[in-house]
Structures are given as structure tokens and as C-alpha cells.
Amino acid sequence: MREHADFRNGNSPAITDSQQMKTTFRLVQAKNQRITLVLDVSGSMKMTSNGVKRIDKLYQTAAYFLLKVVPEKYHVGIVRFSSRAATVAPLVKKVLEANGGSSSGGILILVSDGEENESPSMAQVTPTLIRKEVIVHTILISDKADQKMIKLATATGGKAFFDSGSYDSTDLQSAFRSTIIDDDEGAPGITPVELLLESISVRAKEEVMMFVNVDSSVGRDTEFTFTYTGNAFNLHVVVMSPSGRNYTANGANAHTNRVTKQVTIAFNETEASSHK
Hints:
By secondary structure, this protein is an alpha/beta fold. The chain has two domains: about 35-180, 3-Layer(aba) Sandwich (Rossmann fold); about 210-275, no CATH class. It is built from five helices and 14 strands. The strands form five sheets. A five-stranded parallel β-sheet has the order 4-1-5-6-7, with helices on both faces. Strands 9-13-12 form a three-stranded antiparallel β-sheet, with no helix packed on it. Strand 6 (about 135-140), helix 4 and strand 7 form a beta-alpha-beta unit. This is VWFA domain-containing protein. InterPro entries: CLCR, vWFA_dom_sf.
């Protein structure tokens, strides 16, 4: 601006009353994001690893993702499919463009452990998704998952993730979370910070102790969530603060969801240092 004729060489032209100044303001506001989970519920998803079904683990992970990770401002849809992969094509119009909205920038998260077997194929719907600017993230469960899911994610600007299908893998949880954390237009300050994600096996009557360091800068509104398999009546969860105070699954700040098999213990203010 300094090189403009009006301001060059230190000039600062005066504004007279006869000059009319017109100022234009533009309000820029981030639009509410639309995200849809497309989940494989076919027979192969009932396969087990150490007694844990893939479909049960998927439901647990999706429930936690929707309840704890996805920002409240997001519009969320869920579609299940088995042999009818054709649901993906009309999905853009029915979900992402619901209530007169635009599909532009909408996100699909496609999770599957098998190969497509009906038309339209992923290759056939890819041009439509690109034209409508829909981003598709794909999560491949096991090495039997269709590798074309990787091409679909790449073509639409999304990312592809892999989970081995093993009962003790945490890759599925990390993949779901990464679809939000890596979103450039996400909601900073709203999406929670994850301090620890770990899977362990506990035998009957066995006691397991773990330590989690909570920094004072992230100690507000802290939650400990335990996802389990088996019977909740045999599970006893205790979180001990650095000062020695115990918080149990039966406390006022705790909640047990027996449908998704998750125990959550929440704190408004958390003591900094190590919890166990």
C-alpha cells in the first residue's frame, strides 16, 4: 500500500467532506460440518478375535466417537450396509444435502472389512463425490478389506486407515479420531485432547494399575473412559488422584453405559500430576 501513488514518499492525503467513503464489511462464519458414518454390518463383521466380535468393537468405537469426539456443531448421519453397497450413491443427497444444505465439504467415513460386490461400484460413484466436493475417509479392517477403498479416499481428498481386526488393537479408535483432528476446518478448543489410548487384557480377579500424567494446562473437564467386553458387574474401576482421593464407577461424576459397555469418570477440575 505504501507504493501506491496516494501514499508514496510519505504522502498522506487528507480526506475532505466532499469525498464519500464507503466501507464494506463481510462476515465470515464457518459452516456447520456434515459427517456421516457408513458402517459395514455384513456377516464377516461378526468374526471374532479372542471372543470379541468386530461388529461389537465397531459399535463401541463409533458410539464413543459420536458422543465424545465429534464437536456438537456437527450434523451427523449413520448408514449401515451389508450386501447393498448402493446406499453410498444416494447418501450424498439424502444426508449431506438434507434440509437444503450443500454437500460441499461434507465428510463420509466408510468402514469395511470386505470387498464390494454390487453396483454402483466405488469407481463409479467417485466422480459424483468429487464433483460434490465430498471428502471420504476410509477405514479398512483386516487385510481382506477392499484395497479400492484407499483409492476412493485419495481421490476425494480423504485419508485411508487400517485396523488389523485384532481384539487388542487401538487403530480403529485412532482412525476415527484422526478424521476430526486432522480436519483443517475443525473446531480448535472444542475437540478433546487425548492423553492416553491403550488396550489391555485382564483376567478374572486380576488387578491392573496404570498411571496417567495430567498437565495443569489440560486438567479441566478431564474424563477417563474405560471400554470393556464381558460383564460389567465383574468390572471395578477406580481412579486415584495425586492427593489420594478415589473416584469410582458408582460415584456422582461417573456413568456406566451397559449398551456400549463403557465406564466414564469425569472431573471438572483435575489435579495436575499422575493419576492411577
